[in-house]
Amino acid sequence: MGKSKALSRVRAYFEEGGFEQDLRRRVAIQSDSQTAEKADQLHLYLDRELGPSLVRLGFEVRILANPKGAGPILLAHRHESDELPTILTYGHGDVVPGHDHQWREGLSPWELKIEGERWYGRGTADNKGQHSINLAALEQVIQAREERLGFNLKAIFETGEERGSVGLREFCEQHAQSLSADLFLASDGPRLNANQPTLFLGSRGTVLFSLEVISREGGLHSGNWGGVMENPAVVLANALACLHWGEPGLSYGERLFGWNTLEVLALDAGNPQKPINAIPPRAQAFCNLRFVLGTQTEDLESTLRQHLDVHGFEQVRIHMGQIMPATRLDLGNKWIALIKEAISKVTDQKIAVIPNLAGTVPNDIFADVLGLPTIWVPHSYPGCSQHAPNEHMLTPIIQEGLDIMTSVFWELGELTKNT
Questions:
Q1: Which residues lie across from 209 on neighbouring strands?
Q2: Could you tell me which InterPro entries the record lists for this protein (predicted)?
Q3: Fewer C-beta neighbours within 10 Å, C or N terminus of the chain?
């Protein structure tokens, strides 16, 4: 009866417009962490929006400075008993820039708009909509259990995820005791597809780097010098070609979840806006490597250097960026079966269990720094346009997500410390 009551409450909350009201408020806060002029919006989102919501649910809340000087970080703790298990959850209140003028006519990144099954707005999919689902489910379970959860809950909300989670690792190292738990459980990223509830247990790692060829100080006339002098754009194109290949015979799933992929994000040579008949003096490519657990990233730069040299590209310069490690929870971990069973009680769909997300979340911090088993339950889908104009989430996923998280939180409340 108790769980049915919680599910009835969360469904009524959605049908009566409660979820729309909460998400509309959150989307309207322009918490863009990549635009310096909007830095105040990051603190506003934590202080005026998430903080009061968590206090209402019985959390003790602190908003603390980022050790790297980036956006603030919120810590919250709801303690019921030392005899109960403790869950750590996570979300990020920051979003990417709105790119206001690129959205379809009639849409704005900072105003929630519902058209059919699509809920448009910046952060709907990444990540305001997702943590709003989890907070709503928590509230209904607490109320159905008469102000109890049945487990201890800690929460961390950062405001710098879209900048690479700057300072989060150092923050978690400093506050490791406050963040100790039995399980990490959060929501971000997409499902396998819109119709299939999904668990992922880690993420591919990522590293940004650039390759640069500088042949001379200035351009040269393409008629007088073409075919005689080195063209850095051609050199760079061939260097990229020797790095980028697809392993034959792999399925889409294997390529996304079980393999490494190199993508070129941007190219720079000459002046594409106003090309002139001149060989450019330099060329640069900005690249992204996504990699799975087991990849030897410690020697990545030297491996890349050796490969380019062997292929005759000694003149290509390498500029390495920060590496975010890959992580993956063992498929035999007991928490996986428990969470999967809780989800199966509210859906007839087959549940996908993916060893790691194809993209990258700061999972290594929770898995490696805090030493926690990590499970993610995403409430988005691959076509959500996150990081792009017209970002949205879908009504069926919202409704199913509310049911799923209500069931998960309810079942976690049935455990004891020794379960």
A1: 287, 320
A2: Cyt/Met_Dipeptidase, Peptidase_M20, Peptidase_M20_dimer
A3: N
